[in-house]
Design brief:
Chain lengths: ~240, ~240
């Protein structure tokens, strides 16, 4: 199932005790429609405040409803900040997360002195002009297969990835009027990786660092110049692909 | 001062005891910046849930700050759902409401089977296809100087207008992809007038009534066919003009 959600009022995709999660909201809707308890698996475990236009989830059901009827029934059972985009029957063994070959994210910066109003929950407001051409040049340096450990958020226990090598297929940055957009696609992303990449690109955009600094950060030297983690609200999971 | 706001979390423009209003929010910010208590007057007294991109307000101040500095200071003192767009010193006797020569509103219908997600607070969701060409033809019948009493909301006491004649300069309807947009401009609008006009146009769009029924409603006959009051969230005050 492809779904979209406004991450503002969720503590993230993954179930957490006492918190409102996308996963639990979906599982509750499935139980409501099918009468069965189902475990939902998501392709991207988005953080609190991160949005999705093209998240993919999978679950098992013995429901006899055809996929589009099931989708409509689920959509009607979901709150107004989660919606069903598409439903398909998957081949045996399909798993939204483990079968995924790539994920795409978009980060949107509102680069204008005036505050964003209607978009304020979906963009990061940055008043000073960003050099989007320099950001794009730096982005291209980061594309390819690398050890992205310098861009991985610190995590405890079982969530810490053992292998931090990833294939970043695409990292592009451009200006669209008052917005500066960063598009990232990779086989998979480390925790906070997109937001840390954006934080570094913004240091390039404000001319605090240059391309050689970005190369040094990627090589594991000079993490102090890397910039912070850009806020969650500017980030959106736009798509996931499969074989 | 031209301001914009997201009406979702306001009880409307006008001060009401115990409620969060745009007017009181502005007056508090002005007091915070200038140290003076000022009465704010707004060109359009928008209802609860109605948005604005181009509301105009006026107030008196003895502040020595120049207009743009005052605007920035006020903007910094306002919550994230109200923002200052432009500030100018007005001629003596200027009153945002009484000096206004016209107001423009836009109503947006999300006409698609899928629910709106990121726009859900700014559009009215209508699943069944709307005949936007028929709606536009009916809209043109309503343009001009008429007694718009059939499109006036029921009001008590001092808020009830004594003269219900208005000059509707423009009422256009068109499709923009999955949106059906209604643009209305008039010297001034009666309470609920835009939302009642849209309710009637939607009855035309769903082919419940035709142009002759709209003419009858405008003539004060057949109010029962007029359709309801379209929800506040689809409505936005887009601009106000002055001599």
């Amino acid at each position: 199932m492809t779904i979209a959600y406004d991450g503002t009022d969720f503590a993230g995709f993954q179930i957490q005790p006492g918190e409102r999660s996308v996963q639990e909201t979906l599982e509750d809707a499935i139980t409501c429609v099918t009468g069965e308890a189902s475990r939902v698996e998501g392709a991207g475990r988005t953080d609190s405040g991160v949005h999705a236009r093209g998240q993919v989830i999978s679950f098992r059901t013995s429901s006899k409803l055809n996929p589009s009827t099931l989708g409509r029934a689920l959509d009607a059972s979901l709150p107004d900040d989660v919606t069903v985009v598409d439903v398909r029957e998957a081949p045996a063994g399909f798993h939204a997360r483990f079968s995924a070959r790539g994920r795409a994210y978009r980060y949107t910066i509102w680069n204008e002195r005036e505050r964003p109003l209607f978009d304020r929950k979906y963009v990061y407001h940055w008043r000073a002009w960003l050099d989007d051409a320099a950001m794009d040049a730096a982005a291209r340096v980061l594309e390819g297969q690398h050890d992205f450990a310098p861009f991985c958020g610190t995590l405890r226990g079982r969530d810490r990835p053992t292998d931090t090598r990833r294939h970043l297929f695409r990292l592009h940055c451009w200006r669209d009027g008052r917005r500066v957009v960063v598009d990232a696609a990779a086989d998979s992303f480390l925790p906070h990786m997109v937001r840390n990449l954006v934080g570094t690109l913004m240091h390039v955009g404000t001319r605090k660092i240059g391309i050689s600094d970005v190369q040094a950060i990627l090589a594991g030297r000079g993490r102090q110049g890397a910039g912070g983690t850009a806020p969650a609200r500017g980030l959106c999971l736009t798509g996931v692909w499969y074989d």
